[in-house]
Amino acid sequence: MPFSPGERQYRDFAVESFKPEVREPSEESEQSYVIRGYFCTFNDPYELFRDYYEQIDPHAFDECDMSDVILQVNHDGAVYARTRNGSLQISTDGHGGHCVADISGSKRGREDLYESISNGLIDRMSFGFTIADDGLEWEMDDQGVVHTRITKISKLYDVSAISGFPANDGTEISARSLHDSIVEAQNRIAQQEEEQRKAEEEAEQLRIQQEQQRVERMRRRALALRLINV
């Protein structure tokens, strides 16, 4: 299998729609600290590294466990919202995976994260997930470029605001490991096909040899019968 089942993956997206929901406070309501954005997009190939492209299928989340998803910054530290207490909502549409989070529950959320997003200092999102055992399709073209499609995500752990580069430096390493595994799998398949071809050739040569031996025995038998009759 060209990836490790259950291994947590991270993908980082730059999404213009990651923004605060602006609602000025009034006598009837307090300041709103709601943010919303897409943490991934569907049918949109992206390059994880050289010669490796990936995209997410629109049905990848159909059977995904999203029972307890948290909102973090850079996949680490404080939790700003959570599906389990209703402060984080996760949904999908034709564009991608979408989240709406009320981050008013903590001072850090109100004063740091909300303001950073409002000022455009943070405009990227990422998500942590695991791929199902049968959740990845891949192929390698004639140029050696790998194209993969995530078709089934088994669990969504977190959605994160990203302050700069992807929080998990292992993303590229994992992807390269996957690429190497794919190459190895293709090499194994080619080797198996070559071994199968040789086995078929040897079997055919053996069949021809046995047929020749059978014909020779019949010839000798016929010759012997003619000598007896004489």
Which helices and strands, and how do they pair?
Elements: E1 9-14, E2 19-21, E3 34-41, E4 46-49, E5 52-56, E6 70-73, E7 76-82, E8 88-92, E9 96-102, H1 107-118, E10 124-131, E11 136-140, E12 146-150, E13 153-162, H2 170-229
Parallel strand pairs: 5-12, 6-13
Antiparallel strand pairs: 1-10, 2-3, 3-9, 4-5, 6-7, 8-9, 10-13, 11-12
CA-to-CA gap between the ends? 72 Å
Share of helix, binned:
25-40%
Q: Return Rg in Å.
A: 30 Å
Determine the strand fraction and express it as a percent band: 25-35%
Can you tell me the number of structural domains? 1
What is the number of helices?
Answer: 2
Q: In which order are the strands of the major sheet placed?
A: 1-10-13-6-7
User: What's the rounded overall pLDDT mean?
Assistant: 79
Give the class from helix and strand content and strand pairing: alpha+beta
Low-confidence stretches: 22-29, 166-178
How many E strands?
13
Helix and strand string, N-terminal first? Answer: EEEEEEEEEHEEEEH
Coarse morphology: rod-shaped
Largest sheet data: 5 strands, mixed
Describe this entry's structure for a reader.
- With 230 residues, the protein is of the alpha+beta class.
- It has one domain.
- Helices cover 31% and strands 33% of the residues.
- The protein has 2 helices and 13 strands.
- The strands form 3 sheets. The protein has a 5-stranded mixed sheet with strand order 1-10-13-6-7. A 4-stranded antiparallel sheet has the order 2-3-9-8. Strands 4-5-12-11 form a 4-stranded mixed sheet, with helices on one face.
- A hairpin with a 5-residue loop joins strand 11 and strand 12 (146-150).
- The termini are far apart.
